Amino acid sequence: MFKHLSITDIFFDLDHTLWDFEKNSALAFYKVFEIHQLPIDIPLFLQYYEPINLHYWKLYRDEQVTKQQLRRGRLNDTFARLGTTFPLEIIDSLAEAYIDFLPLNNHLFPGTVELLDYLKPKYKLHIITNGFEEVQTLKLRNSNIENYFQTVTNSERVGVKKPNPLIFHFALNQANSTPEKSVMIGDNLEADIYGAKAVGMHTLLFSQNQHNDSNLFVANQLIDIKNLF
Predict the structure, then answer these.
(1) Digit-coded pLDDT (tens) for 116-141
(2) Whether the Cβ atoms of residue 168 and residue 195 lie closer than 8 Å to each other
(3) Distance CA 213, CA 170 (A)
(4) Domains and their CATH numbers in the chain
(5) Within 13 Å, how many C-alpha atoms sit on residue 60's CB side?
(6) Which one of 11, 76, 86, 127 is CB 3.0 to 4.6 Å from 90, fit for a cystine?
């Protein structure tokens, strides 16, 4: 599909696309609650936390909450669903410990390394991420995929988040590329796909869900992407 286009640059989202956020996040919480000796039913906690976390990230993308409000709010709201509360100093301690442990587990989605090995000799590879800069840098380094990417564009450094067109223009400028020669691959329709489309980039959605939009190119497994380039 993309083979017949003059593609030179491929931009990836990181979390939920290459880096298995849910798996690594769960492992971090097991460690955090163990160290703090909190009797939390972790599977039940995660059942509530995961959609709450996604909701707060949408608010964060839309500039409706700050980084601190995100870190506190997602924990406070989850504990409230469990029928418990903790003082603010405990919430902040848990939030800080979680951020410390999160990049220590670095499970990638199946096919990540094989795909990057295939693409790197043919294209310039890049990252565009809304994640916190200090954490994303560690994730890339600790998962041993940092060297695949020529540029890493982080929303904190740019000052705006996907889907704001400014972050895509910044990334394209960093890569010395143009929208017509670039593909954005990510898991989030709003942030990754619609955001990139709005500036004229080609797009590929990585998702296990069914989508009825005929204008979407979708890959259900990362390894399937090899056949498109």
Answers:
(1) 999 999 999 999 999 889 899 999 99
(2) yes
(3) 28
(4) 9-19+107-228 (3.40.50.1000), 21-104 (1.10.150.240)
(5) 22
(6) 86
